Hints:
- The chain is mainly alpha-helical.
- Helix content is 66%, strand content 0%.
- The protein has a single domain, classed as AhpD-like, CATH 1.20.1290.
Amino acid sequence: MEERISWFPIAPRDELSPEIQALFDQLEQKLGFVPNVFLAYAWKGKRFEHWLAHFNALMEPTPGLSKAEREMISVVVSAANRCLYCMVAHGFAVRVLLKDPVLGDRVTLDYKRAGLSPRHVAMLDYAVKITKEPSACSEEDIQKLREHGFSDEDIWDIAEVAAMFNFTNRLASATGMMPNREYHGMAR
């Protein structure tokens, strides 16, 4: 039985741009499947390509904010938004990047009890505040993160990754995106 990926149309692969088709080929070789978010969003063509470029740029590690930390932000924001797709897909990424499936699941499900450093808890608390109470964000939040060793560039990236996932979570939930079944058993 094949699950429905989205409540919206899924574009036939041969109707997608050559760039998107090539990306899907690469993903099938690397993962063994194409993530459903790509399949669901690809029917919007250029918007999908712009979103993906922005997403990829945001998730690139910098000296002050690793890929694992960026993925931790993604799952904590997704958990706060109760986004099934992103909790599952990015939960897999956190498990891989932390090289610890138990810690990865704990971060996804309850970061405050996962055993993280105070620095990471402060980072994730800020991401949740951006998600749940954006108008309550203050300069004091920035100063607290600076005290934990984050640079202004790092703090901006924390905010931008959180904002990207708030957008993506809302789109995934509003369109009925379902995570690929494969993610559930990966990196365990």
